[in-house]
Amino acid sequence: MLQIVILGTGNIAQHLFDVFSSYTNITIAQVVGRNSKALEFFKEKTETQTNFNNIKNADFYILAVSDSAVEEVASFLKDKNGIVAHTAGSIPMKVLQDHPNHGVFYPLQTFTKNYPVDFKSVPMCIEANNNESNILLKKLANIISDSIYDVTSEQRKKLHLTAVFINNFSNYMYQIGSDICEKNDLSFDIIKPLILETAKKGTLFNPETILTGPARRGDYKTIDIHKSQINNKEHLKIYNVITNAILNKYGKEL
Amino acid sequence: MLQIVILGTGNIAQHLFDVFSSYTNITIAQVVGRNSKALEFFKEKTETQTNFNNIKNADFYILAVSDSAVEEVASFLKDKNGIVAHTAGSIPMKVLQDHPNHGVFYPLQTFTKNYPVDFKSVPMCIEANNNESNILLKKLANIISDSIYDVTSEQRKKLHLTAVFINNFSNYMYQIGSDICEKNDLSFDIIKPLILETAKKGTLFNPETILTGPARRGDYKTIDIHKSQINNKEHLKIYNVITNAILNKYGKEL
């Protein structure tokens, strides 16, 4: 039985709590957080605690707090023997170096409150300061996911950057599409199959080989028509900068 | 039985040919194209023709040629009684106005050669110059798809622009992600579940309400770290312009 204390009460804490709770070989000994209202989510199923000086003993202390709070919260775990691991994409492992056994337990996925995620397919990025902790963090990760990766702090920083392009910026493309549809009396439903197929093909093919569209084929006439149709200044800037990047990459004239 | 002549031999022509061929209430009378090599794809299953003066009679003439060839190819159909419809996103219907019955039969999806598409979920955007042609084009569309929309030429132009943001530009985000992974010894597989989940959530939620990331929360420290990690000049421009658009949209300081 693996004993876990979760520190933090937000989005990631809730998702990890839900998935850990669904396995009988994991026990969540405690959830610790300052915000007693946020602790209500957890308190029917485990012990909750607002005082960071009253943290229980466990095999793993999973820090699911905001980036800026990781170091401070970790400082309350100085006398603990279990593994202290944070879940942040952009924080180096070394902020936990005061602990004999520490590491990173980073689920590379987008999480939305109250929207369940199939954790089995979530890549778990693992890093640890010693071999034993690495093995134990992977043992825990393996229970909840089929997709485990060794990822260094430097690589994880790059993954976090990648996730911004893949998730945040694709989402912003959807927002622009939604905005154009709304302004032209078109249901956004009409574009949803394209969103899904674009993503599916992005995972089945090398994205470079399947790109289509006016920039890819150097169709300046269509590009000009598109530009003339964009009223939003920010959207036009985005259209220009990505179109130019594509023209450039595929050897078309700017 | 609906009789169809397909004009054109490219990607869309092949996909429409495949889906039409799979229904017993549709007959493809002929495929017409200049390129005899490209016609080989079709010739085992239907009559093929390179001479545009020898086009058979049919209920529908589906023009699946490049945008710049639509008008010219349509000129060979002047004496035909069936419905002449093109399949292009950005070409107005009126280029076909010399024909008594004309319209548009635009499948809003990304198509890749030899990669089958589930047409049942492909939105078919229909426009016609008279009520009878509209009904007949919808009858044809209804056989292959469950998703039929009335879309004017002006709206279709906007949809085509939307598709560039949704498909081409999201694909380019994947390319940037793939590039960062490659340069940092990370398998692109690690990012694929995020691509799929991002798209899925983009269709289940209003994209505006689920956006996360440093720009959304005005986390300038992380934005600066990200910028310092981007070596590619074009990628940095894209990062900056989308980040600024998000900061601006969500009322954060630039």
TrEMBL record, chains A, B:
Top-rank taxon: Bacteria
InterPro entries on file: 6-PGluconate_DH-like_C_sf, DUF2520, NAD(P)-bd_dom_sf, P5C_Rdtase_cat_N, TM1727-like_C_sf
Domain Pyrroline-5-carboxylate reductase catalytic N-terminal: 4-78
Residues of the DUF2520 domain: 122-245
Protein name per its UniProtKB record: Putative short-subunit dehydrogenase-like oxidoreductase (DUF2520 family)
Species, as recorded: Maribacter vaceletii
Lineage: Bacteria, Pseudomonadati, Bacteroidota, Flavobacteriia, Flavobacteriales
